[in-house]
């Protein structure tokens, strides 16, 4: 059997090789990884842990919170508060930022997360996940505010996600490729199982919520029609469709076998650019996908170049296999 490489060992080796992962950042990633283990444990208990169902509250986006949304948010906050590596956190589940309490030292990083993505799948035992993104706090910052988080995705120093599925995996980038770790449940350890994942440039798979087809704008209508036209259509191949309703699970499939994931803006609310959140979903996934050789746009521009204006900003998302993302983006530009 080949030698097992743990998350810690991998990060230290990356640090020696590329000198890009300061020890504070490594600590931060390890703590997030530990929190994901706890979330995985809570998710795995299901009905036995009395963690299923609604929490009876709504988040800032007006979405009903599930008990596991709230539990996962608490786990991430508590795990990351005391280490001294963070200045503040922001979560899809909280209205504004969470400052590190005064009793702990102020660190130099900002952490953003969607604690449990794919909430509609929790109670039906389908894959869900945690998504996170790390920024450096601006130089000289003393009292963190929302403004400090308003940095484009190109400024991310790390991003990752955990999928709680048949296996629990952690996918991570620090800007040196994308690597995947599988949770060894007996040992409670993240073990490196895929190094330097690459997304094929071409694909025959797409993921979109097709129930919204009548609301799509013409470029998306055209593109999906062309894919559905199959081998006799302009794209000259048959496509297959997959939609899990957990972005983490859809992106993980695409990372492993190619594909294009789309959550477009549509005509229902022309002023609302899509459903997904820039800071907690689109930016970290775009960083990972680009590091794996794929592409990620909002139909008009590269997601990582978008200058955020609001913490809970939404954005249209087209990401995955490069040639298909470029095709649908070009349809928006015509
Ligand atoms: P496999 O187990 O061979 O993957 O097949 C799964 C399945 O028979 C059903 O579980 C599923 O509903 C269906 O195929 C999916 O089919 P399609 O590929 O047309 O989406
Ligand atoms: P929740 O975590 O609020 O359930 O949202 C999940 C999600 O943002 C993303 O993970 C999915 O791709 C998308 O929503 C599914 O949206 P539909 O409800 O349109 O299928």
Automatic annotation (TrEMBL):
User: Which reaction(s) does its UniProt entry say it catalyses?
Assistant: beta-D-fructose 1,6-bisphosphate + H2O = beta-D-fructose 6-phosphate + phosphate
Q: What is this protein called?
A: Fructose-1,6-bisphosphatase class 1
Per UniProt, Mg(2+) 1 binds at 92, 114, 116
Residues in Fructose-1-6-bisphosphatase class I N-terminal domain copies: 6-194
Query: In which residues is Mg(2+) 2 bound?
Result: 114, 117, 281
Family per similarity comment = Belongs to the FBPase class 1 family.
Q: Which organism is it from?
A: Herbaspirillum lusitanum
Give the E.C. number(s).
Answer: 3.1.3.11
Residues bound to substrate are: 117-120, 209, 275
SUPFAM superfamilies this protein is in?
Carbohydrate phosphatase (SSF56655)
CC cofactor note: Binds 2 magnesium ions per subunit.
**Which GO molecular function annotations are given, in alphabetical order?**
fructose 1,6-bisphosphate 1-phosphatase activity
Q: How does it assemble?
A: Homotetramer.
| The entry's keywords | Carbohydrate metabolism, Cytoplasm, Hydrolase, Magnesium, Metal-binding
* Cofactor(s) required, per the database record: Mg(2+)
Regions crossing the membrane? none
Q: Where in the cell is it found?
A: Cytoplasm
